[in-house]
Amino acid sequence: MEFVSTRDREGKGYSFTKAALKGLAPDRGLFVPKSIPALSSEYTQEKGLGYEAYTILKPFFESDESEGDLLDITRKAFSFPLSMHADGGKDTLELYYGPTCSFKDFGARFLAFLLDSVLKKSGEKKTILVATSGDTGSAVASAFSECENISVKLLFPKDGVSERQKKQLTCWKGTSVSSYEVDGTFDDCQKMVKDAFMDPEYSSSLSSANSINIGRLMAQMVYYFHASFLYEAKYGEKPIVIVPSGNVGNVTAAYYAKEMGAPIRRLIIATNANRSVEDYISSGKFTPRASIRTLANAMDVGNPSNLERLFDLFPTYEVFKQNVKAYYAMDDKIEDTIRRVYDEKGYVICPHTACGEFVRRMWFRDEPTIVVSTAHPAKFDKIVEPLIGRKIAIPESLYGMIKSDSDYKEIGKDYHELFN
User: Fold this and answer.
1) Mode of pairing for the β-strands spanning 177-182 and 409-411
2) Given pLDDT bands bounded at 50, 70 and 90, which one contains residue 134?
3) CA quadruple 323, 301, 407, 196: dihedral, nearest 10
4) Based on the number of CB atoms within 10 Å of its own CB, is 271 exposed (0-12), middle (13-18) or buried (19 or more)?
5) How sure is the predictor about 207, in pLDDT bands with cuts at 50, 70 and 90?
6) Structural Rg of the chain based on CA atoms
7) Three-state SS at 287
8) How far is Cα 156 from Cα 134, in angstroms, rounded to an integer?
9) DSSP state, 416?
10) d(CA 23, CA 31)
11) How open is the CA angle 17-129-100, to the nearest 5 degrees?
């Protein structure tokens, strides 16, 4: 199995592990699998989530230097539950039971254990650069904070994350994690990371843990297999899966899962006011935009990096348009949806999940659906609690982080400041 650049499919191929170590392809493209294999006949949900992950990812590790360690890595990485909130076929996949209460814990932990295993053997040191618009940074920090041969530089936009998210991003004093508040948007943070990767002074010692890293992204296929097989077994039909999306990495993993054989009828992208994907579908021309700040801040991305992978998967406009559907929710709809879901069901959702739920209620009300719930609502207390009229219980792991002291450095938009 080889991984190649989106910008040169006939160029040099890399193993999964080597692609994950590099983070970004040498030509600045993103790594993608050269082919998508069919799901292994070994696939089972009867031996735990770690073994299930192993059977899904195993075809991508054929002849890989980490092939013999894969089962141990998946069992350590997928060590916490995921849950399906059932509602008569209008179900919600809850992905926030990990250490930082975000779906990104799955991929971040897999990548951390994979890279740590490799670097322990080689004695090599790496620095992870990660830009975050909300949840990625804390998931990466938590996952990598105890890795012996890896340090983390975490970039987040000033005034662009919730108060509790910021506490999660800056509570790592005394660990290998350094946090930087950038005077700009998420897109500025992401550009700084990419620019640093292109600088020969730093590039050889760097890797990434954003969804631009294939190692983090591919691990996210696991919960799409898990949820869609459970749904089909329960209801006797394949679900439409609605994925709240910003940088489009999570839904790209879902498309890979569908290509491998996950029983998914269709995939739907739900965005906020940052509507680059919808604009491309309607016009056929992709135009990067400046980020717009919204209540669903982790999705505030005007130039989604992983669209490059979707363009690789669906290489013409007509093919893309046939396979990719996207709808958006403005802030007023996000607020209204949070309020309605609680009033009708007594169920509390975060602003990102509300984007997906709004899309379901508007366009797929009578369809078999799963909405992906990406973060615990307690991370957005200042938004959610006034809408539902009560306090939200804080998960123990989140409580420990928000009570910790903050430690971070304020910087501008020049990536050199990360290394001063």
Assistant:
1) parallel
2) low
3) 90
4) buried
5) confident
6) 20
7) coil
8) 8
9) G
10) 8
11) 90
Convert 278-295 to b/e letters by CB count within 10 Å (16 or more is b). Answer: ebbbeeeebeeeebebbb
First vs last C-alpha separation in the chain:
39
Helix pair 70-77, 104-122: axis angle to 10 deg = 140
Token pair listed for 230? 């459970």
User: pLDDT tens across 161-193, in order?
Assistant: 888 888 889 999 889 899 999 999 888 998 998
Q: pLDDT-based confidence at 137, cuts 50/70/90? A: confident
Q: Sign of dihedral through CA atoms 182, 184, 186, 190?
A: negative
- Give, in degrees to the nearest 5, the angle at Cα 361 between 359 and 364: 75
Q: What digits encode the pLDDT tens for the residues 378-408?
A: 989 999 999 999 999 999 988 888 888 899 9
Q: What sign does the CA torsion over 20, 26, 30, 36 have?
A: negative
- 65 contacts: CB under 8 Å, gap ≥ 6: 15, 17, 18, 118
Q: What is the mean pLDDT of residues 156-162?
A: 87
- The one-letter code for the residue type at 365 is R
The answer to whether 19 and 31 are in contact (CB under 8 A) is: yes
Distance, C-alpha 116 to centroid of its chain: 20
d(CA 328, CA 271): 5
Return the structure tokens found at 233. 């077994």
| Among 211, 326, 212, residue whose Cα is nearest residue 276 | 326
